[in-house]
Amino acid sequence: MKRVLYITYYFPPSGGSGVQRGLKMVKYLPESGWEPLVLTVDPEKAAYPDLDPAMAADVPAETHVERTDSWDPYSMYARLMGRSKQDVVGVGFLGADHTSTKERFARWIRANVFLPDARVGWARFAVKAGRRLSESPGYDAIVTTGPPHSAHLVGYRLSRETGIPWVADLRDAWPDPAYQAMLPAGNWARRRDERLRNRALQHAHARVAVTKDLAAHMTDAVGAPFEVIRNGFDPDDMLDSDQNRLSTSQAVTELKNRFLLVHTGNLSPARDPEPLWNVLERDKNASRWPRLQVVFIGNVDPTILEQIGRRGLSERVTCIRYVPHAEAVSWMKTAAALLLPINRVMGSAGIVTGKVYEYLASTRPVIALGEPGGEADGLLSDSGGGRLYSYEDESGLAEELDRHYQAWEAGQPVIGATHDDLGPYSRRTQAAALAGILDDLNS
Which of 1, 169, 217, 329 could cysteine-pair with 208, CB 3.0–4.6 Å? Predict the structure, then answer.
């Protein structure tokens, strides 16, 4: 069996969406003849937005995991803000005071000094460890996954020094347009970031992106071709999801006999499902959907919660902070329908959030907000798993809620995709695709 050095910042005990792709590749690559050596950061030195130690159960027992030191600017930022480090490490500035002078200054530093990202202090430690691992036990290929895109700088250095072929795997664009509006980078910093990106990724022996749109965008930006290996779901996660783990939850007891419209994961201002609030606000007196309850599983930006309160919708919304991944899957399977707002940013037609595949695998129907005709819309249509409406189509959203609510009330709830439709999106299938690229590079 050949060895691949798999470089990822997010790895258990890290939780959240960023850990999933790398973890599942490590789990399934051995089935295709590749033994992963994982190179990651020491959890004591890491800047993880959430923790989920239970996901370590997916790491094969024989997998070597090398954890390195890191210098992390979040510690300095926490001191500046007078808060703990854990409180300031978020996803997409979730929970930050967007009007604070200190916050704006910290973002300027982040955008203009720490390139390509705030985890770049990990890179030199990872390169040192990667050199040592190249000598013993040795490896035949390198894979880096980002963000953080500083992981690709590690792959670039190691590949240049060792001559070992390297695959760069991008889960998001570099730079990411979803964050550009919040990061006031100057012209010099933007040019510097692009030079770092192009120098690194042009050297990669293969480049991978998670959607067709992202692959096309990055091909144009870098001037080198990208292949597509989509995100997906792990069938084991769906089978292991235990509905009983929710049975003692007070929230479940309070929500019994309710139509649950569930969103799992972090909810940032760019994904605020404002059309839903408009529809529910107009419905306050009409009681069109008297037992409809919106349930947020994960971290929600305070600006969204403030808007819900101003509109008098607090009783319609239940918020449950971050839960372990297995419990989040159980919530998906408990839902009458799943809410999927897609970032309202430039290029949103090409965004396919990682959780949509687990949404589909839960067999619950998806109600999405985004750009009609985009990749997420096509995925929902092709799989039969749901429907997408534009952020301007409030009447369409209301009619979709009607359709689902009436079917649920009649005891014949709408179903989503079936597993027969989702085979191409299995994590096992995607690991095999990555192994095929590695095989080609080592032939």
Answer: 169
